Amino acid sequence: MPTDIVVPALGESVSEATVAQWLKKPGEAVAMDEAIVELETDKVTLEVNASEAGVLAEIVAAEGDNVEVGALLGRIGEGGGAAAEAPAPAAKSEPATPPAAEAAPAAPSAPTGGAVNGGEAVDVVVPTLR
Prior knowledge:
By secondary structure, this protein is an alpha+beta fold. Helix content is 14%, strand content 35%. It is built from three helices and ten strands. The longest helix has 7 residues, at 87-93.
């Protein structure tokens, strides 16, 4: 069942926006929370993110169209979920390099405020956000 992409609440005194740019094209895989369209108001430019993974099935509001809060922008269809989630394993493979960095401080010295696990320093790796 398709999921509607709608114009979110834009603020107290803002009731409409302009579709600035579609970041995805119909037929392209979309990951959950991925930015798919940019909207502009007289006060701000904002991205609308996908509420679920799938494929951008349809664009209803074209670039340059004025849309009101709650208006239908497009639809996300089922399928392509595996393709949309494919970047996730690649992101998980990136932290494979820090073990080499962990091996570098082999001779523990005085604690420097890092996390401690049974007397050993533990590095906490923050993934790269895109």
